[in-house]
Amino acid sequence: MHFRKITIVGVGLLGGSLGLAIKKRGLANEVVGYVRRAASIAECKKAQAVDLCTQDLQEAVADADLIVLCTPLAQMLPLLKEMRPAIKPGAIITDVGSVKATVVKELESLVAKSGAHFVGSHPMAGAEKTGVAAARAELFHNAVCVVTPTQRSHPPSVKKLETFWKAVGARVLRLSPESHDELVSRSSHLPHVAAATLANLVLDPKHPKSQPLLCATGFRDTTRIASGSPEMWRDIAMANRKNLSKALDVYIRDLKKFQSLLKKGDEKASENFFQSGKQRRDAWCAKCASPSPE
To answer: Strand pairing of 52-54 and 28-34?
Structure first.
């Protein structure tokens, strides 16, 4: 698996980690990064995440064999429209977005008109930290990466993209965009809403000043992901709002069930609630699908 030129559009945590992984494994002759801010160029150089960093999008993607969109979801379509004149015919374009159905719908046909091939991707890796300074080459090691081809996808490009993700250390899972979005609404998007809700509730300045002093490791671990990018999670929540809303309905229903147990003082049912959660999580951890964050 080798590319002459790979372009990463958006060199933050994911894009920077991808650049480091590509360089470490020698998967391309050249890794080019596109960034919006001049200050980001110096940050990329310091992190050594790419070989060349530029604010010129068309320069960045020109002659690239593989283009990876690593920006917030709402930026992908405008950026693709801007880069279209410079896209190399036959190039593979993918993304790392946490929602797939809307991305694929917006980008697939537009990329095809440029003579290139779009296939959606979602590496299930990341952290609450943002920016290229937090990037690390092993971020994708043993992480599941979902690839979401459609009936219109170019089969050789799908296979090549899957091989690429395996080459940076990921375990590839192929799903339809719609199936992906339903599943991650529960496993990824709902936890972020829950963490943000808990952080907003417990750390509300209306509470006594001693409240934050009583927030220990359990609170810290449960709310860790609330420190993620608000811009990114706004886009994710809006793009997958139908699935996320359904997941919230079930979550709220289950919380109300537990609330009912508390009101009744039902000790046995309460213990069963915690026991079920422990057993299911322990079983998942035994064959954990995602690497532990550093």
So the answer is: parallel
Whether the CB-CB separation of 32 and 55 falls below 8 Å is answered with no
The helix or strand, by DSSP H or E, that contains position 54, with its residue range, turns out to be strand 52-54
Query: Is the CB of residue 225 less than 8 Å from the CB of residue 191?
Result: yes
* 214: helix, strand or coil: helix
CA distance 22 to 24: 6
Pairing outcome for strands 66-69 and 3-9: parallel
Residue 294 binned pLDDT confidence (cut-offs 50, 70, 90): very low
3-state SS, residue 104:
helix
Cβ atoms of 74 and 81 within 8 Å: the answer is no
Joined together, the tokens standing for residue 293 give: 């964050």
Predicted confidence (pLDDT) per residue in 104-155, tens digit: 999 999 999 999 999 999 999 977 677 898 899 999 999 999 999 999 999 9
Q: Name the fold adopted by 179-266.
A: 6-phosphogluconate dehydrogenase C-terminal fold (1.10.3660)
Edge-to-edge strand list for the sheet holding 144-148: 120-123, 144-148, 171-174
Nearest alpha carbon to residue 234 among 98, 37, 77, 70: 98
Fold of 3-175: Rossmann fold (3.40.50)
Output the six-digit token pair for 200: 């907003």
- Interhelix angle for 190-202 vs 230-239, to 10°? 130
Give mean pLDDT, residues 260-272.
97
CA neighbor of 291 nearest in space, from 137, 64, 77, 70: 137
- Per-residue pLDDT of 86-104, as tens digits, reads 999 999 999 999 999 999 9
